[in-house]
What does this fold into?
Amino acid sequence: MSDEVDEIKEQDAADDWGDALNEQANAESAAADDWGAALNEQADAEAQDVATADMQPLQADEVISHDEVNLDVILEIPVTLSMEIGRTEISIRNLLQLNQGSVIELDRLAGEPMDVMVNGTLVAHGEVVVVNEKFGIRLTDIISPQERVKKLR
It folds into this structure.
């Protein structure tokens, strides 16, 4: 008798799981339908907002000269400027042993110029200066655009 009761309980539990899975599948299907409808509605709204522009074909003799290039569109783009004193590689074991007062040896000699990086790309070398109690850098050498392109390869 106990086996029959256990079997009935297992059957009820399986039915409950089946019902729950069906309910979840129905909910997911309804959500997918809602997303599809929302995306279609958004696409329709965007299509109504788009205006067509009259496009003139580009003539071969209409070459833009360097004097006509307008750099104003990029002048306000922010970039990250950083100075690098030097680098070194250490193991994680040694890194975890560092504490206040530890000295890390870098790959540069004292007095060597620092690297000036823009978005991680070397653009110049310079020396550290102090102006009004703030650190600064005096540029001593600018890397030519040709040299910068070579380093990108």
Summary: The chain has a mean pLDDT of 79. The longest strand covers residues 121-131.
